[in-house]
Amino acid sequence: MFTLPESLGRYKIMGINARNRDFIFPNNRRRFYPLVDDKLLTKKLALEAGIQVPELYGVIEFINQAGQVAEIAAPHKEFVIKPCRGSGGEGITVIKDVMGGNFLKASGELVSAGDMQYYITNILGGMYSMSGSSDKAILEYMVRFDPIFNEITYQGVPDIRIIVYKGIPVMAMLRLPTRKSDGKANLHKGGIGVGIRMADGVTMYGVQGSRFVNEHPETLKPLAGRQIPRWPFLLEMASKFYDITKLGYVGVDIVLDKEKGPMVLEANARPGIAIQIANRCGLITRTEKVDAVDIRSFTLRQRVEFALNAYK
Ligand SMILES: Nc1ncnc2c1ncn2[C@@H]1O[C@H](COP(=O)(O)OP(=O)(O)O)[C@@H](O)[C@H]1O
Ligand SMILES: [Mg+2]
């Protein structure tokens, strides 16, 4: 993954130290972190604010329930299991079918009941969790992605990451699963990041690992020039997370379900900086524009308008 030296400051690229020191520390109060570090809590808050999220099927909290996946998921053929406090796509499994007590992953791999129980035990033990402390396993609706992504995704659901600074969406990228990323769109898992033009929600350049890419490696279709549907609405969903969480620097992950429409997957209080490479643009060029105006009295509508107009 990219490490950006601080000397890139003259390109107004945000390095990891600047992100922590100048953006996260002053804008994200520690007591609000749990609102986004705990995916169950994020789901609850989003629903209260009228934002769609993948439906919760069940939660496994205790080791003696580790064998209950099939039971909880019984009414649903497809579902996703994830650690409540996970990040970076770690420990997420997309299940497409339950067959004779075994679980079929999106990748085509079969997981035995015993292996499933072991995996759940690992989630509960905190193996995938940010703090490493004990965790819960969430079972939820498997998003069926919008067909507009058919040509540029591989065995998984793309998501849209939007960075929201002081309530204003400032940068966005589409993340696409690849063969390597095993059903997840996270860049550290091998997903592709594609920059999105803020003004109209059209995709631009792509990046995978440390390489610029113009085509999806599996489908060989071009990444650029694709219109993200309902763009202003997605910006509004992301912007609302500022009101919900009070976090002044937050990354919001949105998916587009082909029947249910846009849903928020989660939000991040420490969003990654590679989004700048996918956009070939430094984040500081964006945040500076926000800091140059008095946005304190802006309504949600005005914040979205600002995002659509400020970044050409
Ligand atoms: N309910 C779901 N349905 C389908 N894919 C999902 C679902 N939840 C997560 N994923 C896949 O896993 C990726 C990471 O999920 P996310 O909830 O953002 O967790 P993390 O905190 O690990 O990034 C998503 O970008 C998506 O590709
Ligand atoms: Mg995520």
Describe, in plain words, how this protein is organized in 3D:
By secondary structure, this protein is of the alpha+beta class. It has two domains: 6-52 and 145-310, D-amino Acid Aminotransferase, Chain A, domain 1, CATH 3.30.470; 56-140, Dna Ligase, domain 1 (2-Layer Sandwich). It is built from nine helices and 13 strands. The chain has helices at residues 16-27, 34-37, 39-48, 69-73, 113-124, 231-245, 275-279, 283-291, 300-310, and strands at 56-60, 79-83, 93-99, 102-105, 110-111, 137-140, 159-165, 168-176, 192-196, 203-208, 211-213, 249-257, 261-268. It has a seven-stranded antiparallel sheet. Strands 1-6-2-3-4-5 form a six-stranded antiparallel sheet. A hairpin with a 2-residue loop joins strand 7 and strand 8. The longest helix is centred in the C-terminal third of the chain and has 15 residues, at 231-245. The chain is globular. The two termini are 27 Å apart. 45% of the residues are buried. The mean pLDDT is 94. Bound molecules: adenosine-5'-diphosphate and magnesium ion (MG). Adenosine-5'-diphosphate is lined by residues 54, 80, 82, 86-90, 92, 94, 140-143, 156-157, 159, 177, 184-186, 253, 265-266.
